[in-house]
Amino acid sequence: MADVLLSALLPVVMEKVTDSVLQQFGVIWGIHDKLKKLERMLSVIHNVLEDAEERQVKDAGVKNWLAELKEEAYEADDILDEFNAEVMQRKAEIQVDMSKKVRSFLSFHNPVCFRFKMGRQLNDIVDKIEKIVDEGNKFGFTFKPPLQNRDRPQTHSYVEESNVIGREEDRKKIVKLLLGHDHNQNVAVLPIVGIGGL
């Protein structure tokens, strides 16, 4: 498997832990507080991750810290995938009649056993990540907001007319061509696409 940067993995795990349906079932299953704690820790990690990934090149301790963190992020991802699978199954069971629910309860894979098992696994992963975060505090990472939160120039196809200079005559010719009454002339439409400014 190709080596994945933690900065690529972490947003995926964060998206899963903040899933609204999972959060709702978390309340029902009594694990909502642990999910919220995991979400807060992942957010803290995400805010110092850029600094940590830059410093791992020169600092073996930071590199090891990131490796541990990545291992636990994969573990959290697996646990959250299991939760999501269970949530989908529970949602499907709402459509099933009562007799099948009784059989499901008596089977090995029942909601009470699952809730206990997953609650314990979630507890373990939250505790492990919390310890790793505490160990990371010794490195004194610099808080850097994630790239999507930084101020970046807006990129869109809308251009304010006051910023366009020297195209008025071309615009008039195009409008005249499109609105003209010369029906014998074939007008080809060519979309203009690409990166603005090129």
From TrEMBL:
- Which keywords describe this protein according to UniProt? Coiled coil, Leucine-rich repeat, Nucleotide-binding, Plant defense, Repeat
Q: Does the keyword Lyase apply?
A: no
Asked whether the UniProt record includes Nucleotide-binding among its keywords, one would answer yes
- Provide the coiled-coil residue spans: 35-86
Gene Ontology MF terms: nucleotide binding
Tell me the ranges covered by the Disease resistance N-terminal domain, including all copies.
Answer: 12-99
In its UniProt entry, what is this protein called? Disease resistance protein RGA3
Protein source organism: Elaeis guineensis var. tenera
Q: Which GO terms describe its biological process?
A: defense response
Please give the InterPro entries that the UniProt record associates with this protein: RX-like_CC, Rx_N
UniProt record similarity statement: Belongs to the disease resistance NB-LRR family.
